[in-house]
UniProtKB/TrEMBL annotation:
Organism name: Medioppia subpectinata
Any one Gene Ontology BP term: cell-matrix adhesion
Organism taxonomic ancestry: Eukaryota, Metazoa, Ecdysozoa, Arthropoda, Chelicerata
InterPro entries named among the record's database cross-references: Integrin_beta_N, Integrin_bsu, Integrin_bsu_VWA, vWFA_dom_sf
Cellular component annotations (GO), alphabetically ordered: cell surface; focal adhesion; integrin complex
Domain of life: Eukaryota
Alphabetized UniProt keyword annotations: Disulfide bond, EGF-like domain, Glycoprotein, Integrin, Membrane, Repeat, Signal, Transmembrane, Transmembrane helix
Coiled-coil positions: none
Pfam families documented for this protein: Integrin_beta (PF00362), PSI_integrin (PF17205)
Name listed for the protein in its UniProt record: Integrin beta subunit VWA domain-containing protein
Entry annotated with the keyword Membrane: yes
Domain Integrin beta subunit VWA: 12-208
Membrane topology: Single-pass type I membrane protein
SUPFAM superfamilies hit by this protein: Plexin repeat, vWA-like
Length: 209
């Protein structure tokens, strides 16, 4: 849609000048053209210039909250300013300055949600094996690091999984005909471990899940 077409659909002065900074309204009672809302150049041939109503507005901003960067625990500030008020029209552009400074030891939480159906068993083992390495790596970035764990078992319908008696069948490659090898019943979510800084508890809980 061109700018001109964008303006033409307006039926009132308020609607017209709110559509775009480039839309103008002719309030001349003697106006005889079909469209009162149009671009300024288009209207100047049909409307008295003194009867043109527009809302030319230079885009600007006000800084409302601009606290200094802080590393204080519980009062960390990494982004400034924190709050602006913008004065601008539809389809106009405005650049605002934003500054970022990463705080040391900023709190970081990592929560793993994992599918515990049988087809994902190998990934659970991998996660348990790298759990401590992962925690050690994150603690080099921040000392305030916690890790948690939750799980679900996917829907017992194709193509998500095969099913029998509403339970997922785990096929042991070493004994594929064993009818007694089953997975957990399906469920949407189960919280296993609350966020904790103890990576050993995470590894233990993943392995026992």
């Amino acid at each position: 849609m061109t700018l001109q077409e964008h303006c033409l659909s307006a039926k009132t002065c308020g609607e017209c000048i709110s559509k775009s900074v480039d839309c103008f309204w002719c309030e001349d009672e003697a106006f005889s053209h079909i469209y009162r809302c149009n671009g300024e150049k288009q209207l100047q041939f049909h409307c008295n210039k003194e009867k043109l109503v527009g809302a030319k507005l230079n885009p600007r901003y006000e800084t409302l909250v601009d606290r200094e960067f802080s590393k204080k625990f519980g009062q960390t500030v990494q982004l400034k300013p924190q709050k602006y008020r913008l004065h601008m029209r539809t389809n106009s552009e405005l650049k605002i300055p934003i500054h970022f400074q990463q705080a040391d030891d900023y709190p970081m939480d990592l929560y793993y949600l994992m599918d515990l159906s049988c087809t994902m068993k190998k990934f659970k083992t991998n996660l348990a094996n790298v759990g401590k390495t992962l925690a050690d790596t994150m603690k080099r970035t921040t000392k305030d690091f916690k890790i948690g764990f939750g799980a679900f078992v996917d829907k017992p319908v194709m193509p998500f999984s095969s099913f029998k008696l509403d339970r997922i069948q785990c096929i042991d490659p070493n004994n594929p005909n064993d009818p007694n090898v089953w997975g957990e019943p399906t469920y949407s979510f189960s919280h296993k471990l609350t966020l904790d800084s103890d990576e050993k508890a995470f590894v233990s809980r993943v392995r026992s899940a």
